[in-house]
Amino acid sequence: MTHPREVDAVIVGAGFAGMYQLHRLRELGFTTRVFEAGDGVGGTWYWNRYPGARCDVESMSYSYSFSPELEQDWEWTEKYPAQPEILRYAEHVADRFDLGRDITFETRVTSAAYDEGRERWLVTTDTGETVDTQFLIMATGCLSASKLPEVPGLDRFQGQTFHTAHWPRGGVDFTGQRVAVIGTGSSGVQSIPIIASQAAELTVFQRTPAFSLAARNRPLEQSEIDQMKARYRDWRAAQRASGFGVPIEPATKSALEVSEAERTAKYQGAWDGGTLTAIIGGYTDILADREANETAAEFVRQKIRERVTDPQVAETLSPRSYPIGTKRPCLDTNYYETYNQPHVHLVDLRKTPLVGLTETGVATSEDSYDLDAVVFATGFDAMTGALTAIDIRGRGAVALKEKWSEGPRSYLGLCVTGFPNLFTITGPSSPSVLSNMIVSIEQHVEWVSDALAHLRQNGLGTIEATAEAEDGWVAHVEEVGNATLYPQADSWYMGSNVPGKPRVFMAYIGGVGPYRELCTEIAENGYRGFALTPALTPA
Ligand code: FAD
Ligand code: NAP
Questions:
Q1: Of 320, 348, 376, which residue sits at a domain end?
Q2: How far is the CA of 523 from the centre of ligand 1 (A)?
Q3: Of 21, 64, 169, 363, which is least surrounded by CB within 10 A?
Q4: Are the C-beta atoms of 506 and 491 separated by less than 8 Å?
């Protein structure tokens, strides 16, 4: 099939954001092309095929809400769906809405330049194609630019290496092998128990321990599926109005104003429920006050001590260097129990730093470990990495990368001054990664679609955030972030997992519901903070 070289909109990425954006723009009659580096849809769930990869938002909430028929037809099987099931869901959506015909797969967008005279973007791909478009919508993902550790010798190791975000399609069998996992964030926590069940020896190299809660994953009962389907519309409304895109009972008390017994009972209830937000959202000040936070942190550390038999190993696995919730907490299945097995070893890189890879394995300052395979669960250049990897140039040929050299700057995490008609779905400085991301994706996609329809209906050609609005939003995001404990952690939220990246809190913690209201109100008030210009009349 030949695709047009001139379109109304180009979308980069065919994960949940790009797929829905395509569907929405098609409904509005915009000619649209999507470019996707992978050879299929699904984004995160296409790339992250590592053993144990699983969502930690409940399946019936981590799914599109835009089509009530889709909602009713699709049957989730587990409370927390595994990667293959989520990928099947994405593929089902692509088939159901016939999305594939406008997606060019195995094609990476490498640059995009704004032509000020024509008010259009020229988008170039690694297959040599250039497409001319009025609107450019980046659906490139907050967690799609994977990163390896900055240590020497990565290409010297003679065994096999894998990154969790580029897992081979057919899987990997580690039976009988000596395996290392480097990294103990969510991807490490999920994959370590399964790799341990196969490997002859597993050595985990930990730089910073995670706070992880037992997921208590289980198959869904037909009755609960039916109940949710019966009340889906109300549930979706509650998701949209909530703080994290997951409805929970709003906290009303400080953790410090209740007795220890009351607090412990509350934390135990949250623990038994196996949901991420219940502990950190249980009191008003868990994410704002270090002393309040410590009560929740210590509760989870106590659980780690109960789950790990060797007290020294338990202590090494117990986070003490950052408040709970300020690095993304994890949900696990048998993570801590895995360390009770004699063939599983934990290396504390804080005590014996990683020196590098050798021909035969991994070297630390104290030891060398002979290995058959090394798994890098070392995460992503989050939030900005996939955007700055593309040479995006706005007015005056200014590069986005240059503009963001001191940290991302945008209005609402959606639009960037100097880059007209460019949109970033779940962009930095929006709630994005601090939420059930499908809720945030749908909100951004719908806002962008409405904006494009508004321009067209009113004979307008461009929309661009004003410098004043952008400055105001950057200051607001920083102010709200600074009122929390998030800046106290070295986390990917702060950019501190990437050497040289500016230390800036890259998400908006104002809450999904209030943020949505603000975006809607701005649109209803003539796109306050945006400059809208009349469409050029054809010469
Ligand atoms: P992505 O799914 O990342 O898709 C972006 C797509 O853009 C990718 O397919 C990529 O190949 C493509 N792309 C990027 N750059 C280019 C380019 N230059 N040219 C062409 N294509 C490009 N969120 C939750 O809310 N709950 C969870 O439990 C959860 N679990 C997660 C587990 C893992 C392992 C990871 C990595 C993330 C998880 N997330 C979770 C976040 C997850 O990324 C989002 O929920 C959601 O899937 C993001 O969808 P997206 O379309 O915005 O981005
Ligand atoms: P991550 O949370 O950034 O974890 C990376 C791990 O690698 C950290 O333990 C990090 O240590 C370690 N590391 C990085 N560079 C290192 C180095 N040079 N030497 C030693 N250790 C190094 O990445 P992730 O686990 O892939 O998860 C990223 C995000 O994706 C999550 O936070 C979450 O939002 C999402 N995710 C969700 C799930 C889920 O359960 N739903 C699963 C996977 C991913 P430091 O902490 O010291 O930097």
A1: 376
A2: 27
A3: 169
A4: no
Question: What's the Cα-to-Cα distance from 204 to each of 178, 305, 339, 359, 403, rounded to whole Å?
Answer: 11, 18, 9, 19, 39
| Minimum-distance ligand 1 atom for the alpha carbon of 426 | 52
The per-residue pLDDT of the chain, averaged, comes to 97
pLDDT in tens, 219-277: 999 999 999 999 999 999 999 999 999 998 889 999 999 999 999 999 999 999 887 78
What sign has the CA pseudo-torsion 316, 318, 323, 324?
Answer: positive
Q: If you take atom 12 of ligand 2, which residue's CA is the nearest one?
A: 183
With a CB cutoff of 8 Å and minimum separation 6, the contacts of 507 are 383, 428, 429, 430, 431, 432, 433, 434, 481, 493
Q: Which residue's alpha carbon is nearest to atom 19 within ligand 2?
A: 149
Residues 318 and 303: their CA atoms lie apart, in Å, by 10
Q: Which atom of ligand 2 is nearest to the CA of 57?
A: 41
- Total domains in the chain come to 2
- pTM beyond 0.85: the answer is yes
What is the rounded distance in angstroms from the CA atom of residue 178 to the CA atom of residue 202?
Answer: 6
Which amino acid makes up residue 67?
S
Q: Position of tokens 């959202």?
A: 281
CA distance readout (Å), 367 to 219, 230, 420? 43, 58, 54
Gap from CA of 490 to ligand 2 centroid (Å): 12
Residue 467, helix vs strand vs coil: helix
Q: Closest Cα to atom 8, ligand 1: which residue?
A: 43
Least confident of 1-10, 23-32, 397-406: 1-10
Q: Which domain holds residue 301?
A: 160-376
In terms of domains, do 218 and 307 share one?
Answer: yes
Please answer whether residues 384 and 502 qualify as being in contact, where contact means their C-beta atoms are separated by less than 8 angstroms.
no
Residue 166, helix vs strand vs coil:
helix
**Cα 152 to Cα 217: distance, rounded to the nearest angstrom:** 39
What is the atom index within ligand 2 of the atom nearest the CA of 188? Answer: 25
Say if residues 347 and 203 touch (Cβ distance below 8 Å).
yes
CA 345 to ligand 1 center in whole angstroms: 31
Q: Scan for tokens 């953790």, then name that residue.
A: 255
Kindly report, residue by residue over 258-271, the tens digit of the pLDDT. 999 999 999 999 99
Pair (268, 204) in one structural domain: yes
Ligand number nearest to the C-alpha of 382: 2
Q: 213: helix, coil or strand?
A: strand
What is the pLDDT at residue 278?
A: 80
Task: Determine the atom of ligand 2 nearest the C-alpha atom of 330.
Answer: 40
**Residue 378 CB less than 6 A away from ligand 2:** yes
- The 10 Å Cβ neighbour count of residue 490 is 16
